[in-house]
Amino acid sequence: MDDQFQKWQKTMFTSYQNQAALFNRLKNEMIGLYAKINTQEQIIISLNRERFLLAKENASLKLKLSQSRTFSEENNEDIEQLETHQMIKDMEKMSISNEKLLIAQMSLLMDDDCNTQMAIEYCTHKLKNSENYQIKAKKITVDSATTALYQSSLGSLHNGSQKNETLVFYYGHHDHLDIIANAGFTNEDFLYGSFGKGLYFHSTIKNLQEQKIQKILLCKVALGRIELISKSKIKSTITLKRNTEYDSVKIFDMEMTDDNDDDDEIVIFDSHLALPLFIITFE
């Protein structure tokens, strides 16, 4: 009887080891697949922006050509070279960023690898003239209840299993940021903006005041199905109606800039789909 029990126990232990190994392998494959999906989403968004920018520049050049009928062949050749140069310059902007930025982004989105050094690295790439600031990051301890609400809310997304998680920045008063860090986001944090009442975030860090200590929140949000809107189509005096077929709105900054200082505004309408990760301090 004891021999049979030991044999059964050994069989069960071996089976458990095999299942554990299979689980770890599946977990690693899912992490790799998630990284590929997230990268593809970022590429699509970047390509959409570049398509709009190129179309705008092309229309501007055509207008200039139509307004003048005295161009010589030499001038036409110069314009063609200018268009080619501009296109090459725009294509160079399509790269999602350098390797360090991608590593930092993926590490922050994966809870197990989330650390302050990666947060500082990510913010450094998202801040123009970052060398002028001392950046500090304080990790926020998210309680289990907030995490559970986040996970349960993912099931309500239109895209189903495609969470489209990304990193964004939230601005606000210092005291209010501390409250959010302690309690998480709630509907009381909703603001009225271009798309009505929701949580408004930014994709980059901008408008910091020099010689002044400032704080923002680095957050993880699940965007689900995204409605893409050009900022040029939005009038500040008009509040647009939210399209309920989408979970979030991404408002593209379509202004042509030489420093690639694009800032997209991101709006979500469920406070449970945002998790504060770090308090970022700039000195």
Tell me about this structure.
The protein folds into two domains: 2-39 and 49-92; 131-282, Phosphoenolpyruvate Carboxykinase, domain 3. Strand 3 (191-193) and strand 4 (196-202) form a beta hairpin. It is α+β, with helices and mostly antiparallel strands and 283 residues long. Strands 3-4-8-7-6 form a five-stranded mixed β-sheet, with no helix packed on it. The chain has helices spanning 2-67, 73-92, 99-109, 116-125, 144-153, 174-183, and strands at 135-139, 165-170, 191-193, 196-202, 214-222, 226-230, 248-252, 265-268, 274-282. Helix 1 packs antiparallel against helix 2.
Structural class: alpha+beta
How much β-strand is present in the residues? Answer: 15-25%
Query: For the residues shown, what is the average pLDDT?
Result: 75
Overall shape: it is globular
What is the top-level CATH class of the largest domain? Alpha Beta
Helix content: 40-55%
Overall radius of gyration: 24 Å
CATH topology (fold) name of the largest domain: Phosphoenolpyruvate Carboxykinase, domain 3
Question: What is the CATH architecture annotation of the largest domain?
Answer: Alpha-Beta Complex
User: Sheet with the most strands?
Assistant: 5 strands, mixed
Instruction: Tell how many strands the DSSP assignment holds.
Output: 9
Count of DSSP helices?
Answer: 6
Strand order of the largest sheet: 3-4-8-7-6
Uncertain residue segments: none
Number of domains: 2
> What order do the helices and strands follow?
HHHHEHEHEEEEEEE
Termini separation comes to 72 Å
